[in-house]
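Sample entry copied in:
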Amino acid sequence: MDALQPAPVRQALASHKVSTNKRYSRKNRAFRRQGEWFFVPEPTMVVDRKLVLCNEPLRRGAGKPHLVEQLYRTGGETVYVSSKHPNGLLPAEYKRLLKSDPSAARWGWRMMRRDMGVYARGAVSHADHATITLPFWHRVMMNTETQSRTMANVAFLD
């Protein structure tokens, strides 16, 4: 269970002095959890209302999405994604590929952002889980199962 908690979640557990018997619960002072997602409180966070997305899906891959009432994204890096490069190429990698193989321009590329900061507020629902309510902004983090060697070729894209 410890191995599935991202470092910021473990840091929040330590800073909030969450007892050993509550560190794996779905709700404690350090986080809320729904499925593979951790929500770490950021009670003083203020965001630009114009950048808040409503009823936004949150998904790890092709599975059923969690639906978030209010979602805010920040930062990350631009990548170019196609079926042949599902985890994305950085702009310099993309340009090198097009230079070496001009036919790659027809691979149905989409520009996306990788490794963004994601924050949620309001109701978070999913068909397989009880709905949770986040009364203020929470940082969203996926559990670390994708960081295992067997998941080395999986990326969280948006």
Notes: The beta strands are 32-34, 37-41, 53-58, 66-74, 77-82, 85-89, 110-114, 117-126, 129-142. The chain has a mean pLDDT of 87.
